[in-house]
Structures are given as structure tokens and as C-alpha cells.
Amino acid sequence: MIPEVKSHPPGAPEETRSEVVSSYLSAEVRISVRGLNFWYAGKQALFDNNLEVKTNKVTAIIGPSGCGKSTHIRVYNRIYKLYREQHAEGEVLLDGRSIMGEVDFIELRRKIGMIFQQPTPFPMSAFENVAYGLKLHYRMSKGELADRVEKAFRDAALWDEVKDKLDAPATALSGGQQQRLCIARALAVEPEVLLMDEPTSAIDPLATAKIEELIESLKRTYTLVIVTHNMQQAARISDFTAFFLEGRVIEYGITRQIFTNPSRKETENYITGRFG
Amino acid sequence: MRRKSRNARKGLDGLVKALSSLAALTGIVFLVWIICEVLIRGAQAFNWSFFTALPAPPGTERGGVAGAILGTVGIIALASVIGIPVGIFGGTYLSEFGGNRFGGVVRFAGNVMMGVPSIVIGLFAYGVIVLTLGHFSGYAGAVALAIIMLPVIARTTEDMLALVPNALRESALALGSPRWKATAAILFRAAKSGLITGVLLAVARVSGETAPLLFTALNSPFWPRDLNQPTANLTVTIFNYAMSPYQDWQRIAWGASLLIMAAVLALNVFTRVVLRERKR
Amino acid sequence: MKMRRKKRYRSTDVLFQYWSAFCALVIILVMAGILAELAVNSRLSLREFGFGFLVSRDWNPVTRQFGALSSIYGTLVSTAIAMLIAVPLSLVIALFLVELAPPALSKPVGFAIELLAAIPSIIFGMWGLFVLAPVMAEHVQPALKTAFGFLPLFQGPPTGIGMLTAGVILSLMILPFISAVMRDVFAMVPPVVKESAHGLGATTWEVTRKVTIRYGAQGLLGASFLGLGRAIGETMAVTFVIGNDHRISASLFAPANSIASTLANEFSEASEPLYLSALIELGLVLFIITLLIQAAARLWLRRLEKGAGVK
Questions:
Q1: Do B27 and C175 make contact, defined as CB atoms within 8 angstroms?
Q2: Is the pLDDT of residue A213 over 80?
């Protein structure tokens, strides 16, 4: 049961508000989650999660540390399957089709990209990093590869900074550049959804601003889900916000409403800084 | 731009996974095979005279390795007495005072030494001791083994001591303890199980060594009364007997092999299982 | 009172530092000593044969003509066989242990590999001589002969004692060392890096091949060099099965000699000074080869460090 989204937020002119709201509400659902439960070696970590991720919108997932935010999104691309003691049950649909059960991981993970908290450049040049995913899935000429790599760098707003250093080791880039490199790498294989697990928590504020700008432009083409422990960031960049507490989805809705008029006490307490 | 076949990629992945499982299985198969053969063939040699008698001529079925057992124990004990203290103190120096150039050279030399084949070390002991004294001896053998143990023990000592947090060192010194006392009483105790592991593994390693003894202690059919002469030992006995054409001697070689293998494996299992538990 | 106590402690401390420094010094002294002693004791042979020692195929105690080539050949070929078998095998075993095995399996298998490493080489020698050699003679070598007998590598009588068996035993000996180190290397790759690659839709092998192996390339190479160094100097396992023959033959079935096996087999028979000196010079050659390999390993690793851009 998805907690109801209030349709009459206070304070603002009724007309534009309901326009915004209805456009949000009618947006397509990219990922739909129902009754998701998750266990780490027998210990339950997620309880009956329900959520909808809307297409071409940014959905932020907030909550105190250890409440299951990362665990939740790691089900979307089933990266948890790498670890034998981790186990998930429930319904998760991507474009209406189930991703649980027997599924082609290669295709699933091409469609759903993931960015991690620390930048994870592969031990190769910047060019090779971005080319890695392309070479995995496609056979193409050198020229075409170069074009696509350049496009990915441009989409990640990194081209100008690396175009002269394409063959230098990726680890020579700054932290913020490395993270954008990882974004470029994920974008190269043309995913539909981008999962970002605290993408800026290990980056300096200036680089963070750049990445937030990037996120704003990315949502035109992609669907983004961003886990963040930084509430201000969530308020700044997201369209929808889900609040997690102890493995449960407490509340979920349009960001503006969650932050200005949350319907659950726990949400209010977290947002006002009473804990977390 | 063409899409690569997903099935081909998954097929290759599956093939590699199957190959690695097979390879791992092969490793275990060989281990089990070797241990079983040694167990079975070695056990056939075990009888009263095997453990109590001195070597006898082939075909008499009366021979034993009693002298060799004593000799091996004696040589290893002497080697330990020489090698362990020097190794531990050397490793202590490297850990506590060795951040300088001298320490770097020592570490380098230690690394090189650990890569030197044990037969070359045997040759060294031959040249330095046997040639100088004019005869083969158990002493020379013990020295050769001690040299093999030395860099290994120094390295593990340095590693284990380096794991002890600096805070512990500082609190000992802050109480006014002199350096040597802090090291002996506190550091050694803190790293105790790691140090013992390192020592035991080094002892296990040299127990099975044959080549260095070939040029130093040789072998002897008599009781090892005096280490200043060629000394009976298990490993050279195995070498001599195995290469001989006599069935009963070959059987004795298997029996001695079982003794050596059992001792070495027991030490290894002991350090890995028992000492590791205690560390946790 | 206080001042006197301090003085005593200070001198004990100084003693402690000097004593442990001396023990550390011993290591350097021994290493230098080995080089010196070997050189000194081989001077007879050095003078007699000069550099020709390294390339001479002779080995005749009767005519007093000695040359290292046959022994060096045996060492190199048996080691090459061992590396060819052991390195790829170790790679996939390490892969198995870190990526594929369920935790219930990886611990005991890892333990088994470590035990294999602890088994003394003379045991391998015994097993090789009495168990493996007959198997090679009766099954493996005839099969190779039937299939590939047109190659000079697989010609001659399949006795089971010779270069091939020696190489196989050597590979078994160095396998656990190399795979243990490779396993540690794989385990040190940060999970997030591997997850990033998986997250792009790569299969496990694709992640291993392009990311994990690259990440740990230094360590993997170090592991291989470790195995190489071990194989070159290995004595007892090889001595039992290599056949003790100073001939250089193209066939892998033929008996041969490595430097170590020559030393082990002939030292006790070396009655006269030139023979002894020649043997010791062989030991010197072995020592120098070992040093060169170690140096090469260090240089290579340093170059890799600069190129891969891995921290």
C-alpha cells in the first residue's frame, strides 16, 4: 500500500501547484516495487517495501544510516546476487516486467546503471574506462567507439576536462572527475535507469555542485534514483522522495510535500533533525 | 555497431567457471592422493624394529631408523637454538628501529636469501664449516638449517610486531619502561601467537629439508652421539634408501617419509587451527 | 639513587639495540658470505674452464671435462614445463577460491592448498618416483606418443623417468605457492570495483579478465615469479625423477639433469678437487640465476606500478 500523496499542499497558488502535481502523478512508472523483503544471512533488513520510481524524474531515498536505503536500490540491478548470503523476495517490475527470478543479468544491468559512493575507476586509462562497457556489449569500429566514448563524456559534463588526458590513467583525475568518469562509464551503455548510492558524499563541495547540476540535466533522458543522507541535497535535486526507517518505507511522495508537510511523525522528526 | 551475442558471453563465463572448479578439484585430488600413498606405504614399514633399530644391510628386514630419528631431532633442535633467537631479534630490530637505510638493506638481503635454493645454502655450509673443520658434521647441518630459518623468522617477527598498535608501545614507554623491557614483556606477549606461528612454520619447513644436509651432516648408520661427525638423519636416509634397488630399504624410506610428513603436517595444522583460534 | 638507575637502564637499552642490530646484520653477512664462499671454492673450475663452462656440453669426471650446459638446460626446460602447467592452473584455482566457491567450500579448499605447500619436497620426490613415474610410463606418455609422436618432443622410450615427469612434479610443487598468493591478490580487489564492473552488465569472467586481473597484475606477476624462483632451485622432487643423465635431448621423455639434481646426485662421488670445484661452480651458477630472477621480478613490478596507475 503506497502512502497517499497529498494533492493540496499548503501555501502556494492552487493552479500551478495542481498542474505540477498532476504532471507528477501521471508520469510513467519505470520501476514498481511491491512487498519487497530482504535478508542478510538470515537477518531481515528490508520489510515489505512498496515504492514507485517515475520515468525521467529524480527519486531521492533518504533516511538515517543503516536503514536499508542502499540495500533497497541494490535489488533493482540485483547486484546483491554476487553474495550468497543475501536474499530478496517480493515483486519488482521494470517497465512492467519482473526482474526477480530468472532474468538476464547482462541486459538488466545494462539497462540499470549504478554509481557508488566512492569513485571506482578501473585500473586503465580514462578512455578505456568508458569504453569498457561498450566493448562488453558491442562490436564496433574504432571510430565509432571513439565517438561513443566522447558522447558519454559530454553527457557527463566531463569532456572538456579530459579530452587531452584520455590515455592517462583514470586514477590521475580528481575525486569529482573520477565520479563523473564513473557516470560517463555508466551512460556509455545507454541505460534507462541510473542508481546512485550517495554519489557525492566522498566528493568536495565544488565538485558536488557540478554533479548535482549534471543530475538535473540527466533526468531529461534517464530515470534517476539517488540515495543520500544529505537532506538538503534531496530537497534540491529530487522530484520524489522516499523516507526509509529501519528497513521500511515510511513515507513517499513529491519532494516538496515531504519536506514541507510530511504526513508521518517519523518523517517530520527526521526532517527537522530530531534524529538521524 | 553490432550487439555481441549474450549467449556466447554467458557460455564462455560458464566454461571458465567449470574449468576453475575442475582445477580446484584437481588440486585436492593430488593432495589426497599423495597423503594416502604416503600413509599406506609408510604404515607398512611400521614395526618394532623400524622405531628401535639402527640401519641394517638390505635384505635382513631388521633395519630401522631409530638413530635417524634422534639425529633429525638433534639437528633441528640445534638449528632452532641458533636460528630462532637471531631471527627474532633481527626481526625485532627491523620492526622497532629499522626504518632507516640499514633496515632497508637487511630486508632486501632477507628477501634474496629466502629465494636462495636450500641446496645452495648447503653448499655454503659445506664451504664454511666442513672444509674448514676438515670433516662432515651434524653441526654443519644444523648451521645450514639455521640459515634457512633465519630470514623467515625475521620476516614473520617483523610483520607480527608491526601489527601491534603503536599505542601499546607508547603506553609502555610512557610509564617509564626501558625499551628492551617494553619489547620483551609487552610487545612479545602481544604478538605471541603470531611469533610462535612464524617459528613453528619455520621449524616445519626445515624438518623436511634434505639437500642442505647432503653436504653437511651426510648420514650415518650409528647412534648420533656426537654432532661433530656425520649424523644420522631421516631425510638423507630417505634419499639414500629410495634410490637403492632394495625393496625393504625402499619400504623403510616410505616409513621415514610418513614420519616426516606427519610431523610437518601436524605442525602446520596446529598453527593454523589452534593458534588462529587463540588470536581471535 | 634515581640517576644511577637511569644509567643502568640506558646501557641495557643500548645493548638491546646493538644486539638486535647485529642479528639483523647477520642476514646481510650470510648473504654476502654465500656469494663469496661459492666464488672462492669454485676458483679451480673457474680457472680451468673459464666462461666456456657455461656453454660446454661435456660432463665427464673421468676425462675431467666439465660443462654446465646440460644441467642448465635441464633446469630451464623442467622449470618451463612446470610454469606452463602451474601458472594458468593457479589463476583459475585462485579465481575459484575468491569468486566462485561457496564459503563452505572455499575455506577447506584453501586450507588443502596451503597444506599442499607445506609438504616437503622429498615426499613429492618419493611419490613422484614410485607413484607418478609408473603412471606416466604406462598411461600418459604412451598416449602423448600416439597423439603427438611426430614431434621430436615426444619421441623415445616412455620410461616415466625424465624431463616431462620432472616438470609435472615441479608444477605440483609450485602450484600451491602461486595459487595462494594469487588468491590473496584477488581477495584484495575492493568489492566496489568488482561491483562496478558487474553493474555494467559484465559476466564474472569478463570482470575477472579485464578488471580484477588488471587491478592485481603486480601481485599476480609476483606470484608467478615466486613460483619460478622456487622451481629453479627445487632439488629433491626433481632429483628422484629426472633420471640423472647429462645428455641434452630434444625429447621430453629422455632423462636429463638439472643443476640441483646434479649437485645432489654427484656431490658424494666428487673425490678430486676439480670435480668438486666444478660442482660448486654449478652451485654458483644456480645462485646467480636466482639473483637475476629476483632482480628481474623487482624491475618488472616497478615498471608495472608506473604504468597501470593503480594505487
A1: yes
A2: yes
Mutate to test the interface with A, among C200, C211, C310 (most CBs of A within 10 A): C200
- Rounded CA-CA distance C96/B20 in Å is 5
Q: The domain containing residue B29 runs over which residues?
A: 2-43
C-alpha distances (whole Å) from C152 to each of A66, C106, C148, C167, C252 are 66, 41, 9, 17, 8
CATH number for the domain running over C52-310: 1.10.3720.10
C214 → chain A, closest CA residue: A123
Domain limits, chain C: 2-41, 52-310
Longest CA–CA separation in chain C, Å: 91
pLDDT the model gives residue A42: 86
Q: In this structure, are B210 and B110 located in the same domain?
A: yes
Per-residue confidence (pLDDT) for residue B25, from 0 to 100: 87
Among A104, A106, A144, select the one facing B1 at the smallest CB separation.
Answer: A144
Distance from CA of B13 to the nearest CA of A (A): 12
Cα–Cα distance measured from residue A148 to residue B275, given in angstroms and rounded to the nearest whole number? 56
Q: What is the CATH number of the domain that holds A252?
A: 3.40.50.300
A51 alpha-carbon distance from chain centroid: 14
The answer to whether the Cβ–Cβ distance between A122 and C214 falls below 8 Å is: yes
In this prediction the pTM is 0.80
Q: Assess whether pLDDT exceeds 70 at residue C103.
A: yes
Same domain, B136 and B181: yes
Model pLDDT for residues C194-237, shown as the tens digit of each residue: 999 999 999 988 998 889 888 888 888 888 988 898 899 899 99
For residue A130, pLDDT over 60 is answered with yes
Chain A positions touching chain C (beta carbons under 8 Å): 77, 79, 82, 84-85, 105-110, 113-114, 116-118, 120, 122-125, 132-133, 136-137, 168-172, 182, 185-186, 189
Q: pLDDT of A18-50, one tens digit each?
A: 666 666 777 788 999 999 999 998 899 999 999
Which chains contact C through at least 3 pairs of Cβ atoms less than 8 Å apart? A, B
| Radius of gyration of chain B from its Cα atoms, rounded to whole angstroms | 24
Residue of B nearest to C234 (CA): B117
Q: Count of CB atoms within 10 A of residue B5's CB?
A: 10
CB contact under 8 A, C211 and A172: no
Q: Which residues pair with A60 in a beta bridge?
A: A226, A241
Q: Which of A139-153, A154-168, B232-246, C152-166 has the lowest mean pLDDT?
A: C152-166
B201 and B67 within one domain: yes
If asked whether residues B32 and B60 sit together in one domain, one would say no
Contacts of C196 in chain A (CB under 8 A): 114, 116, 120, 122, 182, 185
Measured CA to CA, the distance from residue A73 to residue A45 in angstroms comes to 13
Taking only residues 4 to 33 of chain B, the set having a beta carbon closer than 8 angstroms to any beta carbon of chain A reads 4, 6, 9-10
Which domain covers residue A202, as residue numbers?
Answer: 28-119+191-271
Question: Same domain for B189 and B225?
Answer: yes
Q: What is the mean pLDDT of the segment spanning B57-79? A: 88
Average pLDDT of chain B to the nearest whole number: 88
Buried b (16+ CB within 10 A) or exposed e, A190-226: bbbbbbbbbbbebbeeebbebbeebbeebbeebbbbb
pLDDT at B22: 87
Q: Which of A82, A182, A189 sits opposite C201 (nearest CB)?
A: A189
Same-domain status, B170 and B193: yes
